[in-house]
Amino acid sequence: MTTSVSGxxxxxxAVLDNGAIVxxxxxxxxxxxxxxxxxxxxxxxxxxxxxxxxxxxxxxxxRGTAIRPADVIAEELDRxxxxxxxxxxxxxxxxxCTCLIEDLDDVLGLLADIVMHPVFPDEExxxxxxxxxxxxxxxxxxxxVMATEGLFADLYGADHGYGRRPRGSVETVGAIDAGALRRFxxxxxxxxxxxxxxxxxxxxxxxxxxxxxxxxGWTGAPSAPVELxxxxxxxxxxxxxxxxxxxAQADIAYGFTGIRRSDPAYYAYWLMNNILGQYAxxxxxxxxxxxxxxxxxxxxxALDANLIPGPLMVRAxxxxxxxxxxxxxxxxxxxRMRADGPTDREMTESxxxxxxxxxRTLETNVxxxxxxxxxxxxxLGTDYDVRIPGLLQAVTRDEVHAAxxxxxxxxxxxIVIAGPYTRT
Length: 424
Description:
By secondary structure, the chain is of the alpha+beta class. It has two domains: 2-215, Cytochrome Bc1 Complex, Chain A, domain 1, CATH 3.30.830; 238-419, CATH 3.30.830.10. The chain is built from 15 helices and twelve strands. The chain has helices at 53-60, 70-79, 104-116, 122-140, 143-156, 170-174, 178-188, 204-215, 266-277, 283-292, 323-340, 344-361, 365-377, 384-393, 397-407, and strands at 2-4, 12-15, 21-26, 32-39, 85-88, 93-100, 194-200, 238-243, 250-257, 296-303, 311-318, 414-419. Strands 1-2-3-7-4-6-5 form a seven-stranded mixed β-sheet, sandwiched between helices. Strands 8-12-9-11-10 form a five-stranded mixed β-sheet, with helices on both faces. The longest helix is centred in the N-terminal third of the chain and has 19 residues, at 122-140. It is globular.
């Protein structure tokens, strides 16, 4: 079954007999095709004792199959000028590459072998474990990472899928062997949880037929869904410090449990977040804390609405002597937004910014593929790009103000500060 819409990106979408979803979009920007292959196998799937398993699997999945050792895979990719990258977030593991049109069939066949038949050789696992441990130690030496991961742990709990460290710890990664990787692959990488997007100068139906040839014979029931609690919004203000006294900069992660992506208020929150810490030089936060007060190396806000209520977070990097002032200024800007809401001018300019910046995100095949994968993941429809302007235009100032009152309460903020800072 295939479907398409007129206007906008107008991709063609098909569901294969095994449940795999394939979306193709013709783009004549370059004589190449970007392939974005995703699976419902993100870090929330990690067993608590094996935190970091999804990340580890993403780094070893292409290190050999039943018929191709790692060096053969590398040679086949290199011969076609293809660089294969992997990405893992909380819910999805993805493999991404770009190839010439004439190589599409062969590259899809190679990707199918990689994701269907990986063997996770012991020697490759040992090598990659050392690389992952190095990355973990680099994270533990980075105040920005420690503050952000600490905030997620405090908002959701260290045992929650959102609260665990995505790469795990040195101890949990040390306990992951080839057997654990094979079990994870068998349980989580299945056609029923697969979404394949192809964007390039190729006929969409031709691309879908090529995907059917490569993946259509793969069988396996969809993975069991991971049960995640919504997390309990904080009722009091919480502040925690992570001492890193050898650093020159302190990093602040300040946030709240926010909303689901499916919440009807999402577009009001999107506008509110843009006004607060995104628009122009960083919204109100950037204008106040960085530009007028000169306190921050960077400051911004981010809204991570997801399958469960994700965080609305303010991030800032400051001199240790400015931590208390910066936190107080964040409090002040949130209180102001909560009390007064946005101005009419802010509403107009932020709407225009979000609507008119979208075409820039869709200028490349990679950008289009990422957008279509996100739309597929959240069930937004193949015409989502066409509907975005109307969805934003429909948001009222009162709705944005209501979103601020609902969430931006400094008295219930969770704050984590990492760096050379001692709380007084």
